[in-house]
Amino acid sequence: MGKATLNPLLAVFTVVILSTVYADEASKTFIFRVDSQAKPSVFPTHLHWYTSEFTQQTTILHVYDTVFHGFSARLTRQQAHSLGQHPSVLAVFEDTRRHLHTTRSPQFLGLRNQRGLWSDSDYGSDVIIAVFDTGVWPERRSFSDLNLGPIPRRWKGACETGVRFSTKNCNRKLIGARFFSKGHEAGAAAGPLNPINDTVEFRSPRDADGHGTHTASTAAGRYAFQASMSGYAAGIAKGVAPKARLAVYKVCWKNSGCFDSDILAAFDAAVNDGVDVISISIGGGDGIASPYYLDPIAIGSYGAVARGVFVSSSAGNDGPSGMSVTNLAPWLTTVGAGTIDRDFPAQVILGDGGRLSGVSLYAGAALKGKMYEVVYPGKSGILGDSLCMENSLDPKMVKGKIVVCDRGSSPRVAKGLVVRKAGGVGMILANGISNGEGLVGDAHLLPACAVGANEGDAIKKYISSSRNPTATLHFKGTILGIKPAPVLASFSARGPNGLNPEILKPDLIAPGVNILAAWTDAVGPTGLDSDTRRTEFNILSGTSMACPHVSGAAALLKSAHPDWSPAAIRSAMMTTATVLDNKNRILTDEATGNNSTPYDFGAGHLNLGRAMDPGLVYDITNNDYVNFLCGIGYGPKVIQVITHAPASCPAKRPSPENLNYPSFVAMFPVSSKGAVSKMFIRSVTNVGPANAVYRVNVEAPSGVTVTVKPSRLVFSEAVKKRSYVMTVAADTRSLKMGQSGALFGSVTWTDGTHVVRSPVVVTQLEPI
Q1: Angle 3-630-624 from CA coordinates, rounded to 5°
Q2: How many alpha carbons fall within 13 Å on the CB side of residue 562?
Q3: Parallel, antiparallel, or unpaired: how do β-strands 245-250 and 128-133 relate?
Q4: Is residue 623 part of a domain?
Q5: What does the DSSP 8-state code read for residue 122?
Q6: Do residue 453 and residue 570 come from a single domain?
Q7: pLDDT at 25
Q8: pTM of this structure
Q9: What pLDDT is attached to residue 120?
Q10: What is the pLDDT of residue 378?
Q11: Residue 674's pLDDT is what?
Q12: Same domain, yes or no, for 192 and 125?
């Protein structure tokens, strides 16, 4: 990261020489963050400067000039290192591959026709949502522009053409579509990644995977009557912001993932195009979070948020493990997943009369109560792999039977295909300990039912103890009014924040289990090549599905409150979120059945019935984010990599926990023995009635003292902003941390009408 005093011409000369010396070294794609202020006036554009001075022996892939200044290019590691010594280069990082984090939900969020937020925001009319994903299948009813007005004049985007995608595929609903493949293609050229396969993929914004179509329609799909997935979840399908405009940015490719260089280019284009909200259901899949200055999603989203664009991101699907949450930057809104009050139950009926509950979206010919022999490949090893991997099952032992397969190591639907190929008549998919009791429905190719770990163990015990174990499967269709709901999804990634535990992540949760939304015509509902079925809608689960719910919610709030900043919009969602289910109990964890905590759900579950009128908001400026970065130890040049502009840190290092966030994390060192305290400073802005008086209510974590001064905030026409100080004190010798290693409480401000709640976390987790 250091800055050398290297002559620019010498730097170019060095690159030219190295390109010969290291000709046999494998080249990779690198992203270069360049100080835009250093461009010599002789060059009319940054592209002219970059191509003249930095890349004599290679081709620039992307030039970034909106949310980020710099370029990406394919070079050897030695060439990239040499180029990184140039005085104008602030940072260099290698292109990284990322992965997708893969109806009724609007009503479940509190949205109602003709009243409330839908009515007050005109259903998100004229707000533009950008979706970074696998593209779109534009012919779906969800993307109809019927009765929509003209495209907003501020829109500067494009409808890019390509394979099976023309300008006619865009309309007043789908107002823009772009695709980004240069980073992917460069990565494939360097190996071992396969190049884009033109037999299964489209070199255009058209969606060959389905994920992008699903997330786009979840955020902003139009009303589609008589919608269902093969009869499941029948009803009217609609997105959270039905009148919002959509701009699709295809950055992920079927079977290949998504590359940072392409994602960063999409951020650059989307902000320049004039979008209001960015929805990105993408993140790292290795559980390791990169520092913000090496994370293009963090960098690109900062550039967007700094320009007033709200960015919603998925938390990841690596739950229920702790510290698994991704997309950690405090300017991002990070979304976990919960269930809704709709389910697709199925039953495993055993030969001894036992009935075990599960879920399924199987829509083919039923077993009609007929009993079949049931076998478990893991019983003795005779049948092969208990995970039902490809070619692991012996057809002689499986044919005509129901097979129990353990979840893990391969897609759930792929296991069913393995069973069917081996001649099995059905499958029971059993969770392991790591998945607990968390279940998601799948549109299996054969009769199949997913069951939790306890039910799976019971079935295996029955098989091992019975001389003639038999079973059948019964499918119950769609059931509404499920209680409890929401429930935290077992797969939803959890805190604490692995980079900066002072910031609670995820921020909140939203519907992400068994979500009905539009689907591509390129593949069947399972996504398997052998699945020849085609359906207009599909039901998917993941934080990928939760993220666009918040994106659509942000569009509604932006439409109702166009002057609100991204931080204000997030604050409105967080401080009005619910921590109770429809049985009026604390949200439970699907994985364990126990109460979940703010490490799991952040501030709670999105409740749009209250978010439009939150009363108070915690706003955050660009300078606040800079002070936060100073507080976590970043120097001015490192900060400039993220923020675009030169930064200076205060002489006294700021406390990162004093970022004006709508949540609190008090970290006491593990080494502390005795009385400790932590002070937080917050400011709230009144966005409700001008004359208001708010009083504080504290629910202190067990064994902890929480004081707030002042305890009363008075607002008027002249005074719209007030500050307060919260002190958390404890004696660490007597603190008894829970299983999560933390204690939880809350601080709530209320004026009798509005309830502005923030979670409080106390932990002895050492600072990272």
Answers
A1: 125
A2: 8
A3: parallel
A4: no
A5: G
A6: no
A7: 61
A8: 0.91
A9: 57
A10: 81
A11: 87
A12: yes
Q: Tell me, rounded to whole angstroms, the distance of Cα 688 from its chain centroid.
A: 30
Q: Does one domain contain both 395 and 369?
A: yes
User: Domain residues for 673?
Assistant: 660-763
For residue 725, the tally of other CB atoms under 10 A from its CB is 12
What stretches in the chain show pLDDT beneath 50? 1-24, 103-115, 117, 381-383
Backbone φ and ψ of 279, nearest 5°: -115, 120
| Same domain? 174 vs 228 | yes
- pLDDT for 57: 63
pLDDT for 3 equals 35
The count of structural domains within the chain is: 4
549, containing H or E segment: helix 543-560
CA distances to 69, 135, 349 from 185, rounded to whole Å, are 22, 17, 50
Tens digits of residue pLDDT in 294-340: 999 999 999 999 999 999 999 999 989 999 999 999 999 999 999 99
Q: Tell me the C-alpha distance between 632 and 572, whole Å.
A: 26
Residues 15-40: pLDDT tens digits? Answer: 332 333 333 467 889 999 999 888 88
Burial 344-354 (b: 16+ CB within 10 A, else e): bbbbbbbbeee
Token pair of 454, please? Answer: 């306890």
Q: Residue 163 CB: number of other CB atoms within 10 A?
A: 13
Structural tokens at position 581: 């289910």
Q: Which of 241, 231, 258 is nearest to 538 (CA)?
A: 231
> Which amino acids are annotated catalytic?
133, 211, 544
Give the position of tokens 């935290």: 488
